[in-house]
Write a structure and sequence with these properties.
It is built from 14 helices and eight strands. The chain has 384 residues and is mostly helical. Strands 1-2-3 form a three-stranded antiparallel sheet, with helices on one face. The chain has a three-stranded antiparallel sheet with strand order 4-5-8. Strand 1 and strand 2 form a beta hairpin. Helix 4 packs antiparallel against helix 5.
Length: 384
């Protein structure tokens, strides 16, 4: 497969033939290093894990551009987030480093620095983008492995969620004036703001009293982008009758493809403008806790749980891919269920104990166990 040659003082050359039949060589100052390298490269050639060293010398900045251009499946909003993370965190550190020079320890230090200087959340996002770039290089045969795998990331500390009561939702909707129906819809449907402002008239089924959530409207670099919801899956939500009545008034006489929620002049609602110009002002005016439009999604979850919704119902309403995600996010809203279970078990314990006492009291005396005295033995000296 190969051999090591001495090429001069303190210079040893490991020579081998790659899978394409080309002879290659690499020099080392010590023979033991050349032997080790030859052993590793020979194993890689035999096992099919060989990577041409020259293919890993491309700069990460150049490879990141190739990777991003290949992500045609990304939604515009996701692409914009990746571009922002690349520009802000990844490229300033790694753009001039060749792919084969990216090391695990350096990535670990970088992630720790980003978490310290910015936030754990930023470090998690930056690590994910770098890992995707390196994984793409592995699939393309430029790297043998992804050096970002196994990096320890600091956990993001979640802030306590704010949940509004029915009265607070009413006050907030009243303070929002024209946009009150949108506030109520968000607070009782569990929809994201982008999903709500993308809702079309034809997707509201008044006969079956339910609504199809099939699109999301987001602003990307100043342009409105209409795409699928976050999970890419359609779902149905069933708001209370009073919310459906709000929608009936809004859409009366409107064309099927129009958006249900619009600006007073009939334009699509931009989430950033709505939050800045309408929502924040309504929060201040109503005196409710300082919340964001996304907190109304949490509010819908809380109110649904109070009304008896279980995790699977909540998962369907929110459009989560798995019940695990729903449970991780909203499981804390169900603490009293543990007490209910404990009380039920206690009642069963007491009922079982009462039944045993009854059997001992009402049972046939012949079934009772004899004591040693009945056998004629001395009760104080007989074996127990």
């Amino acid at each position: 497969m190969g051999h090591v040659q001495r090429r001069g003082p303190r210079r040893y050359q490991a020579r081998y033939v790659d899978p394409e039949g080309r002879e290659r060589a690499r020099s080392f100052p010590r023979k033991c290093d050349a032997d080790r390298y030859l052993s590793e490269i020979s194993y890689a050639v035999r096992s099919g894990g060989y990577v041409d060293p020259s293919r890993g010398r491309v700069k990460l900045g150049e490879w990141a551009a190739i990777w991003l251009a290949a992500q045609g499946h990304l939604k515009a909003s996701s692409r914009a987030r990746y571009e922002s993370t690349l520009r802000t965190h990844v490229l300033p550190r790694w753009a001039t480093v060749s792919l084969d020079a990216v090391r695990f320890a350096a990535i670990q230090r970088w992630c720790t620095d980003v978490a310290d200087e910015v936030s754990p959340s930023a470090a998690i996002k930056a690590h994910r983008v770098l890992s995707l770039i390196l994984a793409f290089a592995v699939k393309d045969g430029r790297l043998a492995r992804n050096a970002a795998q196994g990096v320890a990331l600091r956990r993001e500390v979640r802030r306590d969620q704010e949940y509004l009561t029915h009265d607070e939702v009413r006050r907030l909707a009243e303070a929002a004036g024209y946009y009150g129906p949108l506030i109520r819809f968000l607070a009782y449907s569990g929809c994201r703001l982008g999903e709500a402002v993308a809702l079309r008239v034809r997707r509201v089924d008044f006969v079956r009293a339910r609504i199809e959530i099939a699109e999301s409207l987001t602003s990307v670099n100043g342009h409105l982008d209409l795409s699928t919801p976050k999970s890419h899956a359609r779902r149905w939500v069933v708001p209370p009758q009073s919310v459906m009545a709000d929608l009936a008034l809004l859409v009366k006489g409107r064309p099927p493809d129009e958006f249900v929620f619009q600006t007073p002049r009939g334009y699509p609602i931009r989430a950033a403008n709505f939050r800045r110009d309408v929502f924040n002002a309504a929060v201040s005016k109503s005196g409710v806790p300082r919340v964001t439009p996304h907190n109304l999604r949490h509010t819908a979850s809380s109110l649904a749980v109070d009304a008896g919704a279980g995790i699977k119902v909540l998962q369907s309403m929110l459009g989560h891919k798995s019940a695990t995600l729903t449970l991780d996010t909203y499981g804390h809203l169900l603490p009293d269920r543990l007490h209910e279970v404990a009380d039920q078990i206690e009642q069963q314990i007491r009922a079982s104990a009462g039944a045993d006492e009854g059997r001992m009291t009402d049972g046939d005396a012949s079934n009772e166990l004899p004591i040693d005295g009945d056998k004629g033995g001395d009760p104080e000296t007989s074996d127990l």
